Amino acid sequence: MFPVRIVYGLDGVASVDGPRNGVCGTEAGSGSAARGHPSARSYTPCPQWPYCEKRCSYCNFNKYIPRGVEEAAMRSCLVTEAQTLLRLSGVRRVESVFFGGGTPSLASPHTVAAVLEAVAQAAHLPADSEVTLEANPTSAPGSRLAAFGAAGINRLSIGIQSLDDTELHLLGRTHSASDALQTLAEARRLFPGRVSVDLMLGLPAQQVGPWLLQLQELLHHCDDHMSLYQLSLERGTALFTGVQQGVLPAPAPELAAEMYQEGRAVLREAGFRQYEVSNFARNGAGSHTREARIQTLEPDNWMKEVMLFGHGTRKRMPLDELEQLEEVLAMGLRTDVGITHQHWQQFEPQLTLWDIFGANEEVKALLEQDLLLLDHRSLRCSWEGLAVVDCLLLTLLPRLQEAWQQRPPSPGPGG
C-alpha cells in the first residue's frame, strides 16, 4: 500500500504507520509536544518505494514486481504526499528522512532528490540532517551510490542478510556474498562511518558455528552499525510453504536463540553497543512510537488517491491514553536506555513508574533475577533481559493495565 506514516517519537506522541510504499514519517518532541503541539515537534518522513526486482522467499511486505514503472508519476505522487502530510501535521522541522520499501535503491536518484526538495520547501531540513536509503547490493553499484549521494543521501542501510551463497539462494536474494562485500566496500568509501548492514539468523538448516563465522567475517568489512534479524516464517511466503510441506526443515528456535546470544556477545566484544533488541552500533541511535493509519494498498490505486486528495490515507486511528502508555513501555524497553521517569511523566503525570511497578511481586521477581532494572534513572532491561524483553512484557503490560484501571480520576478544570 502506498502511504505516509507519521510517527511521534518516544519523545512525542504517535506515528502514522503506513504501508510499504508512499510517504510515512516519524515525529519527536517533548513537554507540550508530547501533548500534541506540532510546531514543537520534529518529523522524519519515510518515503516508501514499493517495487522490487523479485519477491524474496521470506518477505510478506506489501511490495510489487512490476513489468514497468511509470517513475515520473510515482515521483510526482511521492512529492505531493510528502508536501500534504507535512502541511497537515503542522510540523516545521524535519530531523531526518528515511527512504524504505520495497527496494528504494531501484528508484532513480532524481526521484530521491525531488522528494528531498519537496520536504525542504515544506519544512526546515537542516543541512546536517540524516538522510538514509535502504539498498540491495545488486541494485546499488558504486556509480549509482555516488549518484544517490549527489541527490542528498548521506547514509545507507544495506540488506546483506547472509555471506553464504547457498543461504542467499534459499532466501531468494539476487546478490551473492561477493556482490554484498563489494557493495559494502563502495558504500563505506562513499559514506564513511554512515553505513549499516543487516544479517539474518535462524534460517532452515542453519548452524551456530558457520553463522558466527559469517558474523566475524562481516565485522572485518562493516562500518559502525549492524542489525541482527531472526527469520520469521510468514504465511504466504515461499519459505513458509516449504517448511509446511516438509521440503525444508523448520528453523530450530533453540539454535536461533543461541545464535542471537552468541552474536550479541561477539558484537559487544567488538565494541558495539546494543541500543535496541536487533540493533548494534559503535555510536548512538534512537527509536519512536506509533499511531495507526490504514493506507491504500495497490500502488496504482494509491497514486489515483494522491492525485485526487493529496495523500493515500484511508483511515487514521489515534492511540488512546492507555494504548500510548503501552506503546511507550513496549518500545522503550526494547532499547538499552529504557523509559526514564521524566519521559514517562510526559505521557502520564499521575501514575509514576514506581507506582505501577515498584511494589508488584512479579516485577520484584524480575528485578531479583537481574532481568529488569528500576532505579532513579529509569525502568530498563538488563543486558540479559533485553534478549527476552517480549517475555518480560507479558508481566509488565498486564500490571500497567491493572494500575491504569485503578488510578484516581484526573482533577477537573480548576480542581
Blueprint of the fold:
Layout: E1 16-17, E2 22-28, E3 42-49, H1 71-89, E4 93-94, E5 96-101, H2 109-122, E6 130-135, H3 142-151, E7 155-161, H4 165-171, H5 177-190, E8 195-201, H6 208-219, E9 225-230, H7 238-244, H8 253-269, E10 273-276, E11 279-281, E12 291-295, H9 299-309, E13 313-317, H10 321-332, E14 339-340, H11 341-347, H12 353-357, H13 361-368, E15 372-374, E16 378-381, H14 383-386, H15 389-406
Parallel strand pairs: 1-12, 3-4, 3-5, 5-6, 6-7, 7-8, 8-9
Antiparallel strand pairs: 2-3, 9-11, 10-11, 12-13, 14-16, 15-16
Helix pairs in contact: 1-2, 2-3, 3-5, 6-8, 10-15
Structure commentary:
With 415 residues, the protein is of the alpha/beta class. The longest helix has 19 residues, at 71-89. Helix content is 40%, strand content 19%. It is built from 15 helices and 16 strands. Helix 1 runs parallel beside helix 2 (109-122), helix 6 packs parallel to helix 8 (253-269) and helix 10 packs antiparallel against helix 15. The model is unreliable at 1-21, 28-40 and 285-293 (pLDDT under 50).
